[in-house]
Amino acid sequence: MLAEEFKFIKPGEVRTRMAPSPTGLLHIGGARAALFNYLFAKKNEGSFVLRIEDTDLERSLPEFEKNILESFKWLGIEWDEGPDIEGKYGPYRQSQRTDIYKKYIEKLIAEDKAYYCFCSQQELEAQRQYQMSQGLAPRYSGKCANLDKETVKKYLAEGKATIIRFRVPAKKVSFDDLIRGKLEFDAGLMGDIIIAKDLKSPLYNFAAVVDDFEMKISHVIRGEEHIPNTPKQILMQEALGFSKPSYAHLPLILGPDKTKLSKRHGATSVLEFKKQGYLPEAIINFMAFLGWNPGDEREIYSMSSLVKEFSLEKVQKSGAVFNIKKLDFLNGFYIRQKSIEKLTELCLPYLIEEGLISPFFKEVQYPPAYGAKEIIQKYKISETGEEIYLETIQKIVSIYQERLKKLSEIVELTDFFFKEKLVYNKDLLKWKEMSDKEIKNSLDRLKKLLSKIKIENWNKENLESVLLPEAEKMDPAAQKDRGYLLWPLRVALTGKQASASPFEIAEILAKEKTLKRIKEAKKLL
Fold first, then answer.
1. How many CB atoms lie within 10 A of CB 368?
2. pLDDT at 370
3. What's the helix, strand, coil split of the chain in %, to 5?
4. In the prediction, which pLDDT does 259 show?
C-alpha cells in the first residue's frame, strides 16, 4: 500500500486481532505478531482482539491457553476483547462458535460453492505421489466435485468418511499487502481446498475468514508464512460476500546464521525468558526491532513511545535477525533503571529458589511517632542460619546492579554473601607472579590493618582510606600496583575472579565475617 493510503484510516475504526492456537507455548514469533497488532490498533485509537483458535480439540490444551494469556499479560499486551473480556462479537474461543461456522458452510454447500469429498486418505496420497513424480505441484483432482446430489445423500446416510471442499475458481487473486505491496497468485494451481472435516469442524482458513468478518477485523497483521493462506481466504470472502480486511505480512525472524529462528539460536517460550530473568520492558523493546525500524539511531522505546511512533510503513520486508546479545544489552539497560527496592524484589525469587535465603516475617511494634504496627521483612541465610534484613539484601543487589544482564545472574554473582564457607583454588589468590609466601604476607597485612578499624567505623569510605595507601606500598616493583594487597582480599572475600569492589563487599559482610574469610584464605596456603 502506498504511504498516502494510510491517511484514509479513521481513528477508532481499526480492529486488529491475535489468534493463537493453544497447541503449544507462546514463542517470540507469536508475541512479536501480537505486539505489532496491538501497537497498530492503539496508534489508530482502535481495538485489539484476542481470539483463541482451539478447533483442533485433540492438541488444544488448557495449560497452553493459560501460558498464552499469562505471557501477554506479563508483556503488557492487553486486549480489549477476548476469552476473559466479553465484547459484542464473542464468544472468543473458536470451539464455542461451531454453530456460526455451520451456518456459513451450509450456505456454501447450498450455493454449490463447496461440496462433500469422499476420497480416502490412500487415494489422495497416491494421487499426490503421482503428481510429484510428474514434476507437478500436488493438487486435488476434483474427483468428487461433480457427484450428483443423490449419490452424496446416499454416501452421507451410509456414514462414509467425508470432508468438505471449497470450489476454487480458476482466476488470478491479487491484494495490496501493507508491507510488501501488490501480490498476485494463480488460484487455478491450488485445486479445491479442504475447509472443514464436517459441518461443525472447520479448518483454519475457513474459521479465520468467518471470525474476521463476524468480529469486524479491519487489519490482519501476521507472519509472512501466512502469505499462501491469504489468496485462499480472499476467495472464500468473495464466495460468502464478505468485505476484505487489509493484510500486512511481517518478515520472518531469523537466527544470526540467517536461517529460520529455532531453539539452537537461543529462542524459547516467552515465559521461559521471564524465568531466565528478562524484564518485560526489554522483551517488548527487543521485539519491536524485529522487523520495524523508526528511521533514526534511537534504540530505547517504552510501550507508550512505541504506540506513538509505530507505523507499518517502517516495517521491513527482509528477515529480522534475533540477536541475543542485543536483548541482553536492552535487559541490562532496563535493570539499571529500576529502583533498588524494585530490583531487589525482582531478584529475591532467584535467591530463594537457589536456597541461599528463606523468607520469614517478624512483626515489630514501632514507637507511636511511626504510626501503626508495621511488618519488617527479614530473611534467614540457609547455610549460616543467621538473620539478615531486607535492607542488607538491597545493599548486595545495589553493588551488582551495573553488572546484571539478567535477573537470574544475581545468584552466581552474590552467592558468596550467603555461604558459610567458600570453596576455590588457592591459585586464585595469586596476583601476577606472587608466591604463596607473598600472598600470606598480604593476608597478614590485611588482617592487621582491618583488625584496627572499629566496628562503628566499618564502612566503604574508611576501608578505602586505610587500605588504598597500604596497597600502593605493597608492590615490590614500587609501581603502586594495588593488586598485591587488594586482589587477595577480593578473592578471600568472594572466592571469585570477578566481583564488585572489595570495599563494598567488606562493608556488607561486616568486620567479623571479613576477618574470618581472610583467616580461611590463609589456611589454603
1. 7
2. 45
3. 50, 15, 35
4. 86
Please name each of the domains of the chain with its CATH number: 3-91+253-328 (3.40.50.620), 97-250 (3.40.50.620), 338-418 (no CATH), 426-524 (1.10.10.350)
Q: In whole angstroms, what separates CA 298 from the centre of its chain?
A: 22
Distance between CA atoms of residues 220 and 158, nearest Å: 41
Residue 118: predicted pLDDT: 96
In the block, cell 515489630 appears at 364
Look at residue 474 in the predicted model and tell me its pLDDT.
87
**Sequence-distant (≥ 6) Cβ neighbours of residue 403 within 8 angstroms:** 409, 413, 500
| φ, ψ dihedrals at 196, nearest 5° | -160, 150
Secondary structure, 3-state, 304-316? HHHHHHCCHHHEC
Asked whether 29 and 253 are in contact (CB, 8 A), the reply is: yes
- pLDDT given for residue 86 in this prediction: 85
pLDDT of residue 376: 65
Counting DSSP H helices and E strands in the chain, the numbers are 18, 15
How many Å apart are CA 278 and CA 490, to the nearest integer? 29
3-state secondary structure of 71: helix
| CA distances to 93, 158, 271, 278, 426 from 288, in Å | 27, 55, 18, 16, 48
**CB contact at 8 A, 385 and 420:** no
Q: What is the pLDDT of residue 363?
A: 56
Chain-centroid distance, C-alpha 350: 19
Rounded-to-integer distance, Cα 398 and Cα 336, Å: 10
| C-alpha cell read off for 132 | 510429484
43 CB neighbour count, 10 Å cutoff: 18
Annotated catalytic residues are: 263
- Residue 523 phi/psi, 5° resolution? -65, -30
**Helix spans in 254-408 (H):** 270-276, 280-288, 303-309, 324-337, 340-353, 390-398
Nearby residues of 298 by Cβ (< 8 Å), 6 or more positions away: none
For 465-478, b/e burial (b = at least 16 CB within 10 A) is ebbeebbeebbeee
pLDDT < 70 regions, the chain: 1-9, 11, 266-267, 361-376
The answer for residues whose C-beta is within 8 angstroms of residue 282's C-beta and 6 or more apart is: 327, 330, 331, 333, 334
